[in-house]
Amino acid sequence: MERSAVSTRPAPVPALRDIVQLLKPITWFPPMWAFVCGAISSGVGLFSGGDIFAGEGRWLFVIGGAFLAGPLVCGTSQAVNDWFDRHVDAINEPDRPIPSGRIPGRWGLAIAIIASALSAAVGWLLGPIVFLAALFGLACAWAYSAPPFRLKASGWTGPLVVGLTYEGLSWFTGAAVMLGAMPRGEVLVVLLLYSFGAHGIMTLNDFKAVEGDRATGLRSLPVVLGVAKAARFACATMAAAQVAVIALLAFWGITLSAWLVAAALAAQLAAMPRLLSNPRRYAPWYNGVGVTLYVLGMMAAAFGLGGYFEGVL
Predict the structure, then answer these.
(1) How far is CA 280 from CA 88, 92, 113, 155, in A?
(2) Which of 159, 208, 255, 307 could form a disulfide with 202 if both were Cys (CB 3.0 to 4.6 A apart)?
(3) What pTM was computed for the model?
(4) Burial (0-12, 13-18, 19+ Cβ within 10 Å), 55
(5) DSSP assignment of 75-105
(6) Whose CA is closest to 69, among 21, 33, 121, 32?
(7) What is the pLDDT of residues 178-215, one digit of tens each?
């Protein structure tokens, strides 16, 4: 009797649309927005005598840096996360590209590795400081999802790493791309404060998966603290960071930016009672309203740091 042959054919190459879905384009916006904030906060003009290739003409660097922050480093983090969460996604989100079989075999891991190498290469082309920032972001992306670190398992370290990379590192990269050097101290302090505040944004994102996190052992803050306490912590974290930014902007004499960030915070505070009344129900709503106000305040601070409001107030 013949023994059935075991197939040794490699897994088929996944379709482009499934690779794009794996990289989750909807997640690219926050780091790209923070990158633009960084570019603006540098105070370096994009044009020099109308020539985008000469002097201070930095458009090519900005385009490359935005591509690095969003599709490359952020996209890589999504691919890494989906690969190491494929067993969990098979339960919670079986239609995702990897558990559904649309990205078969070990293609998910291969895509994450290729995207990491491409990100590092683009970072190298943009200069040594950006290259080191890209390497740091990639290291965080792998440590966040992959064992043995798997930082996402903790509701304290996981959101902190995401906030630091999505907001702070992207802002830093934007400023460094424009300057070709290390950003000045005021920019570094503000980007770190907004990164700290983004911990609250990441905590709000965890409200949609409390049951799944609890079942799979992920200790998100809504699981550890309970939904109500986690919501209050998220609000307090976001507000505290912005209060510090407002105080520093005022101290540095960047008055208009301080008022604009204060106005954005006041609107957030007005929206917070609705969120706190039913965090599970209103977290998606607050992510649309409160988080939008938060990132608009980031942009206002960036314009002030870049010197665009000098002499206005």
Answers:
(1) 21, 18, 36, 17
(2) 159
(3) 0.89
(4) exposed
(5) HHHHHHHHHHTHHHHHHH-TTSTTTTTSS-T
(6) 32
(7) 988 899 999 999 999 999 999 999 998 888 777 767 77
DSSP state of 254: -
Higher-pLDDT residue of 12, 9:
12
More confident residue, 249 or 166: 249
40 within 8 A of 303, measured Cβ to Cβ: yes
- Fold type of domain 13-182: Tetracycline Repressor; domain 2 (1.10.357)
Query: For the chain, what are the domain ranges?
Result: 13-182, 184-313
Candidates 246, 209, 287; CA nearest to 27 is 287
Give the CA angle between residues 251, 252, 255 to the nearest 5°: 80
Instruction: For the chain, report the end-to-end CA distance as a whole number of angstroms.
Output: 90
The CA distance from 207 to 210, in Å, is 6
Which residues does 57 contact at the CB level (< 8 Å), separation at least 6? 46, 47, 48, 51
